[in-house]
Amino acid sequence: MNYRHSFHAGNSADVVKHSLLIALVRALQHKDSALTLIDTHAGCGLYDLDGADAQRTGEATQGVLRALADPNPLLDDYRAAVQAVNEGGEPRLYPGSPQFLAQLLRPQDALILNEKHPEDVQALRGAMRGTAAAVHQRDAYEFWLAMLPPRTPRGVVVVDPPYEQTDERARIIASLAAAHRKWAHGVTVIWYPLKDRATHSRWKEQLRKLGIPKLLCVEHWLYDSDQPGIYNGAGLFIVNPPYAFTQALPPLLEALRAALAPEGHSGEISDEWLND
Ligand SMILES: C[S@@+](CC[C@H](N)C(=O)[O-])C[C@H]1O[C@@H](n2cnc3c(N)ncnc32)[C@H](O)[C@@H]1O
After folding, report:
1. Are the C-beta atoms of residues 7 and 53 closer than 8 Å to each other?
2. What is the pLDDT of residues 151-170, one digit of tens each?
3. Residue 5 CA: which ligand 1 atom is closest?
4. What is the CATH number of the domain that holds 134?
5. How far is the CA of 71 from the centre of ligand 1 (A)?
């Protein structure tokens, strides 16, 4: 396990992932019934943007710092969640998915986090002290299936792996198929990086073949054509997204595309049902 999210916290992929997570949970909270939020690859929970790791890559300058400077009101919820961990001052800290999710909890909701890396899980426990979150240190795929179905009537599972193992995609596909058998109406969000369009089409096809009826694919391409050897963007597969979320999605995606487009590129962001 070499991947450390501290090098990448607050990058453009985090902005899209965390903005969509906020919108998704808020849409589910239109109903009063309790939600369980489950984060299988939680990371550290809170990141220091002035720290050596973040400063080495500078990725936050193309992500959260652009989103904070952008005037579009559709990004207000995201900006407020980032500001909440900075007490309104300069954005020195970046909240990871556990902190974004913790901010959304209502009294009836539960938050269950998992992180395997020994240093990161210790940081996570520290970052989540004083919140209602439960923290586990298990293998993400074993944990994912063990948590299903959750105790509350509804829930969301967030799967955000580093994709450093060659079998990561195969494990996701096998686990998603098993998870869907155990909890067909559950909401699942799977983050993925975009390297090039050919690799992505092949993987999308494998997911489509699972035959899950309500499977939405969101793709964010940063550049106007594939840039060889670098990260070209990221996306989310979302199983069973609520109607209010999908209705509000197109303008939010456009706001994110515009805020995050690199110099000289428009970028492209889209959503597509895989089994329509
Ligand atoms: C992309 S980061 C998570 C970022 C976090 N979800 C966020 O949005 O703030 C992926 C995390 O998964 C952890 N990880 C990698 N393999 C894992 C496994 N098999 N089980 C649990 N955690 C794992 C890594 O240590 C890393 O902290």
Report:
1. yes
2. 999 999 999 999 999 999 99
3. 2
4. 3.40.50.150
5. 31
Residue list, ligand 1 pocket, CB within 6 Å:
1, 3, 5, 14, 17, 41-43, 96-97, 114-117, 120, 139-140, 160-162
Per-residue pLDDT tens digits for 93-141: 999 999 999 999 999 999 999 999 999 999 999 999 999 999 999 999 9
CA neighbor of 187 nearest in space, from 215, 217, 162 = 215
pTM over 0.90: yes
Active site residue 276: no
The single residue of 14, 160, 167, 276 carrying the catalytic annotation is 160
Between the CA of 30 and the centroid of ligand 1 the distance, in Å, is 29
The domain in which residue 155 lies consists of 5-273
| Count of the separate structural domains present in the chain | 1
**String of b and e for 225-247 (b: at least 16 CB within 10 Å)?**
ebbeeeebbbbbbbbbbbebbbe
